[in-house]
Structure formats: structure tokens, C-alpha cells
Write a structure and sequence with these properties.
This is Methyltransferase domain-containing protein. InterPro entries: Methyltransf_25, RlmA_N, rRNA_m1G-MeTrfase_A_prd, SAM-dependent_MTases_sf. Keywords: Metal-binding, Methyltransferase, S-adenosyl-L-methionine, Transferase, Zinc. The mean pLDDT is 93. The chain has 9 helices and 11 strands. The chain has an 8-stranded mixed β-sheet with strand order 4-7-6-5-8-9-11-10, with helices on both faces. Strands 1-2-3 form a 3-stranded antiparallel β-sheet. It is α/β, with parallel strands linked by helices. It has one domain: 3-Layer(aba) Sandwich (Rossmann fold).
């Protein structure tokens, strides 16, 4: 039986010709348990098969508790309508990258629906560690989405879900034939939690303007759904979002909302 490192090495080998060093941009290839570039930069795989490709560790950010709670909520089905909308956009047997993947749950759920090669990239090491532990079918990288370890036009679909973006880099790795899909929250997204915390409704107008400046021919798909929160996921709903961070200690996590609103706008880089 192959180890996770052997499995991941084989996956990276399948991307031969598509990999480059994120530091020097030279061509790179997979060796047993590592990615090595022509200039000698070497990125060893950790025990679970994930790669660390940051020049220095990222500071701050999300913690293990938030990632674990988010993972359970996603697996329970809250984002199911979004995954259903994304499924037909994904290629069979192509390369899908989730830039800013967190703990990787969206990419994992999409991989359950369709067969593709997938890479999740995030600068949060705890998130990538959880992703690698949860799924061995995909490749996971602690890295910088502004400098991804992929050649020009290597990616068929790039996902950017509720995460900061780097449109210049996204354009580089997808080229004219690839598709960039950015998910941003609509005004009613998690409105039940906002009501509990007193947070104002979120506007994604500025983010959308930035996207369509980068992709003038882009389009929008808007979806909304209500989700009945299972009692065993109530505390997770309260822990999975930064909306509650500054209110911890003041909120009773066992008395969270029994219903949650999904309101998402999918920004597509080109019409389909």
C-alpha cells in the first residue's frame, strides 16, 4: 500500500511540465517526497504529503478551531447549493486549483462530485495540515497565491472562495482558455449570525468592481438558500466565521441560530 507521500509524489508527477518553482520561477519536477527545481530549491513533503512553499511562515490568521468547525459545517451540507452550481463548471480530468482554500473542504466536496486533478493553496499552515489529513486524492500546498507553483496556462479552473485574490497571477495560470470563479458573499450571507453580533450587512461591491476590471467580459451567478442547522452543528456555526471572533465569551455558542442563510455571488471570468 502506498504512503501518502508516495501517492502525492505520483500526483505531482502527473503534472509534469506544469510545475514551476514559486521562488525562482524555474521548471520543477517531483522526486520521491519532494518538489525540486533546476536551481536546486527543494520542497519536501510533510508526513501527510502536503508541501510548504512559503519563504517565511504567515503570521496570524485563522486557527485550528475555526478550520475544524468550518470543515464540519461544510460537510454537513450548508454550502451544498454552491457546490451544485460549481459542479458543471469543472472539467473532467482537468486541473482545478482552489486559491485560498483554507482547510480544503470546498475542493474536497467538489472532488466528491467530479473527477479532476486538484491543488489547494493557502498561506495558513493549520488549514493545509487539516486538508491533507482529510483527503489523499488532492494536492495541498502551504503557499502564496500571488506566486503559485504552476506554469502559465496550466490551470483549467481556478476557484477563489471567500478569499483575497491575485488577479494578475490568476490570469497567468489560467490563460485565455481557463476559467476563474470567485465566490463572494451576498448581502444576506450569514445574516442570522450578524443579527446576533450586531455586525452590519456586508457589501461586496468593491470586490466585484475589482474582479470585473480584471475580467471585463465576466458574468455573475447569484444563488440563495436557507439551511436548517442540525443541533449538533450549532456551536460549529458560531465558531466557523470571523464574525464572532471579537464576541467570543459574550455569545452562548449552544444558542446559535437554528437557520442559516447562504447568499453567494459567483463571479465568472468569462461567459459560458
Amino acid at each position: 500500500m502506498q504512503s501518502k507521500i508516495q501517492l502525492r509524489t505520483a500526483m505531482w508527477n502527473n503534472l509534469a511540465g506544469s510545475i514551476r518553482c514559486p521562488f525562482c520561477e524555474e521548471a520543477a519536477e517531483a522526486e520521491e517526497g519532494a518538489i525540486v527545481c533546476r536551481r536546486g530549491h527543494r520542497f519536501d513533503m510533510a508526513k501527510k504529503g502536503q508541501l510548504f512553499m512559503l519563504r517565511r511562515p504567515a503570521s496570524g490568521g485563522y486557527d485550528d478551531e475555526l478550520f475544524a468547525a468550518r470543515q464540519r459545517v461544510i460537510r454537513a451540507g450548508f454550502y451544498g447549493p454552491m457546490h451544485e452550481a460549481l459542479e458543471p463548471l469543472l472539467p473532467e480530468h482537468g486541473l482545478v486549483v482552489d486559491a485560498g482554500c483554507g482547510e480544503g473542504s470546498h475542493l474536497i466536496m467538489l472532488r466528491d462530485r467530479k473527477t479532476f486533478s486538484g491543488i489547494g493553496i493557502d498561506n495558513a499552515k493549520p488549514g493545509i495540515e487539516q486538508a491533507a489529513a482529510a483527503d489523499s486524492r488532492l494536492m495541498w500546498v502551504t503557499g502564496d497565491i500571488t506566486s503559485m507553483p504552476l506554469n502559465d496556462q496550466a490551470v483549467d479552473v481556478l476557484l477563489n472562495v471567500f478569499s483575497p485574490a491575485s488577479y494578475q497571477e490568476f490570469k497567468r495560470v489560467t490563460g485565455e482558455d481557463g476559467l476563474v470563479v470567485k465566490a463572494v458573499p451576498g448581502p444576506r450571507y450569514l445574516q442570522e449570525i450578524r443579527q446576533l453580533t450586531g455586525e452590519k450587512s456586508h457589501s461586496s461591491q468593491e470586490v466585484e468592481e475589482g474582479f470585473f476590471t480584471a475580467f471585463p467580459n465576466g458574468t455573475v451567478q447569484h444563488l440563495q438558500a436557507d439551511w436548517r442547522v442540525p443541533p449538533e452543528r450549532t456551536a460549529d456555526v458560531m465558531r466557523m466565521t470571523p464574525l464572532t471572533w471579537k464576541h467570543r465569551g459574550m455569545l452562548n455558542e449552544t444558542e446559535g441560530p437554528d437557520k442559516l442563510t447562504l447568499d453567494v455571488r459567483l463571479l465568472l471570468s468569462k461567459p459560458l
